[in-house]
Amino acid sequence: MDTTQKLNMSIIYITDMKKSIRFVSFFGLFFLSLIGCREPQQQPAKGSGAPPNIIFILTDDLGYGDIGAFYQNERVDEGEPFHKTPNLDRMVAEGIRLDRHYVGAPVCAPSRASLLQGVHQGHAQIRDNQFDKALSDNHNLATVLKEAGYATGLVGKYGLQGREGDSPQTWEAYPTKRGFDHFFGYVRHRDGHNHYPAHEVRQRPPVELYSGTEEISDQLKGAYTTDLFTAAAKKWITEQKDTGHPFFLYLPYDTPHAGLEIAPAPYPKGGGLKGGVQWKGEKGHIINTADSTIEDYIHHDYAGRDWPEPQKRFASMVRRIDNGVGDILQLLNDLDIDDNTLVVFTSDNGPHRESYGYGAYDPTFFDSFGPLDGIKRDTWEGGIRVPTIVRWPGQIPAGSTSDAPGGFHDWLPTFADLAGLPAPARTDGVSLLPLLSGEGTPNESEVYIEYSQGGATPDYSEFEASRQGQRRGQMQVIYLDGYKGIRYNVESADDDFRIYDTRKDPGETKDLAGSSGKFEKLQGLMKDRVLRLRRPDSTAARPYDEVPVPAVEAPQNLKLGLRYRVFETPTPWTPDVSTLGLDSESASGVAKGFDLSVRTRDEDIVIAYSGLLDVPQTGTYTFSLQTDGGAVLHLHAATVIDADRGYTGGTEVSGDIHLEEGYHPIQLTYARGEKGTHALQVRWRGPGFTRQPIGPEQLNHKVYSE
Predict the structure, then answer these.
(1) Which of 164, 208, 360, 559 is most deeply buried (CB count within 10 A of its CB)?
(2) Which residues form a coiled coil (predicted)?
(3) Is residue 344 predicted with pLDDT exceeding 70?
(4) Spatial contact of 361 and 355, defined as CB atoms under 8 Å apart
């Protein structure tokens, strides 16, 4: 019987315990397979074989319903107020629309941190409302692609620089210290609320904007940031044309978030090399739309409408982004790099309700949340589901759509896959390439969100009555077996999830919790799962932080020892072995423990150990690890020790985790590049015993009969 046949039973099976439990059936016994990882992702053909350029466009507070093809176009037939996004609609027609794509968190900083570092909020070090907190010095989109030979640029809003310091030299996590070769834009989160950096606008003073390490706001008279960032992006893209290297551009606009400031003049005709916004580089006229007056232009499609002024402003801001996207797409065509450039367009969270001095504003006029409930800071669909479009001519089927759940943390392994590199072992995501290309079998994404905020869901009449004005508090979302579990104002790990089928019920109107034995079982599995996939963070305390991680039901046919797989491959970091090619696997078997003698050579070697750890007593356990290369330790899907990027060989690192008595999936990945003395020592201490090596009697694996 082959592996697939062995697993084709009514069981709950973990294909990669670091990622997520895949449910084959609700009616099987709960036991584990520890022999298999996910199959390698099948990558779409790339013609010449060269990795594509990548442009990731992120908008600020653009709602799921704010794109024509997602929702606004439906309002035309309904006779409701609507605004247009013709260029984004064309992008949808030429690429794929991701209908259930989720942010890391429903507010700016943690959402962007999860995006950049490829981890969900259960592992991110920026959570809740931690604006301007320093992005940790770990793998991120820029460092990974830079390793693959990409030129890396960031144009737009950052906000993850660190709260200490006041300059590029003193900010701990300035973009050029986090893998970006080039930076142009806003550093501080708050500065992004003014879209005219050289001017005082309503409720906002002039602000700082940096080009590289130079503060240049005094050169930006009349410059509107949507145009400014588009022109700067076009300039940088053009400069990459003949370098011989692919490029990655992260383009996070600071609009349409408030203030509701509008452009100074109509968008210039055309686009690309000769039209649209153009970089002039002259002080006081840095771009061709910089004008002596500001905030003059309501788009002509909306100027004559009998709409409130704030709504005209908002619609004009969205249209300006649409103009910029069309301008950039034209540039790719002009430079003859369109077919080898993947472009992603999305938003950092749901729609806002701020105005900052421009009159009362709510996202109800255009129903920016679409058919969903919730806005920014909510974990209802409207706060976390964002409009996402991916375009890559010739590689992504035009006009395609997917409603498979996925999230921001999936982009790091996706881009690593594009670049021909394995994903780092710490990532919580999966490559989306099979989904985007329609080739191969996509792996299921782990969608997990936690967030805390003291406000309440707005009492909009469009929202389901029971959640109007509902206190938010501690919130949590988990997708499991295709269903969404959501908790508001969480007080303990025992609080029930509401459960929704958001594919059939995007408005979350029918709570399935308790409606059948199936959903009673799913309720328990969700409660266990959210404890097994995250790590507490003392700066963002949760009511379930001290709850022991539940053990799994002991499977039958256990034997002592860990399963191991050996891969002979160079890797720039400790990899997620499910993203290594099968042709690199050189050996597998069972070892008594974390035994490096199973290696098949001394350099460019990766060893993945997996099994079940027998925990003798409920309590807090401290794991410590010392190695010569790099290693990452997981229990269930939680990263307990990350001794990878920045790790100094020979030093000891440790991590604490609360565990329930019983069996816990354990996985350790070890990697070494150069020849040398191999060393790996894993110890633990817990209730009733001091630090010691994990004994072979504590390590088990599941045996399958032939």
Answers:
(1) 208
(2) none
(3) yes
(4) yes
H/E run at residue 652:
strand 652-659
pLDDT tens-digit map of 24-81: 222 232 333 332 333 333 333 333 478 999 999 999 999 999 999 999 999 999 999 9
DSSP state of 696: G
What is the predicted pLDDT for the residue at 675? 83
Identify the CATH number of the domain defined by range 552-702: 2.60.120.1560
CA distance readout (Å), 265 to 202, 224, 260, 290, 319: 19, 10, 15, 9, 13
pLDDT at 554: 87
Q: Return d(Cα 381, Cα 508) in angstroms, integer.
A: 8
77-82 long-range contacts, CB within 8 A, separation 24+: 80/367, 81/305, 81/307, 81/311, 81/365, 81/366, 82/366
Asked if residues 58 and 112 have their Cβ atoms less than 8 Å apart, the reply is yes
Measured distance CA(474)–CA(530) in Å, rounded: 14
Sheet holding 11-16, edge to edge: 20-23, 11-16, 29-30
Could you tell me which of 442, 371, 457 has the C-alpha nearest to residue 404? Answer: 442
Query: What is the DSSP code string of 519-585?
Result: HHHHHHHHHHHHHHS----TTS--TTTTSPBPPBPPPSSEEESEEEEEEE---SS-B-GGGS-GGGE
CB 283 within 8 A of CB 331: no
The pLDDT value given to residue 582: 84
Q: What value does the mean pLDDT take over residues 588-613?
A: 97
Residue 109: strand, helix, or coil: helix
Give the phi and the psi of residue 331 in degrees, each rounded to 5.
Answer: -60, -45
Per-residue model confidence as pLDDT tens digits over 395-437: 999 999 999 999 999 999 999 999 999 999 999 999 999 999 9
Q: Which residues pair with 615 in a beta bridge?
A: 662
Instruction: Give the residue extent of every domain in the chain.
Output: 53-445, 449-532, 552-702
Kind of pairing between the strands at 101-102 and 406-407? parallel
**How many whole angstroms separate alpha carbon 187 and alpha carbon 170?**
12
pTM of the entire structure? 0.93
Tell me which residue of 139, 621, 639 sits closest to 422, measured CA to CA.
139
C-alpha distances in Å from residue 194, one per residue of 87, 158, 377: 25, 14, 21
Q: Give the integer Cα–Cα distance in Å for 13 and 6.
A: 11
Residue 505's Cβ-count burial label (10 Å; 0-12, 13-18, 19+) is middle
Residue 364's Cβ-count burial label (10 Å; 0-12, 13-18, 19+) is: middle
Residue whose token pair is 């996590």: 173
Mean pLDDT of the chain: 92
Task: Find the helix or strand (DSSP H, E) in which 609 lies.
Answer: strand 605-615
- Which of 565, 633, 578 is CA-nearest to residue 605? 565
pLDDT, average across residues 645-666: 97
pLDDT in tens, 356-392: 999 999 999 999 999 999 999 999 999 999 999 999 9
Would you say domain 53-445 falls under CATH 1.20.120.520? no
- The continuous run of DSSP H or E covering 435 comes out as helix 433-437
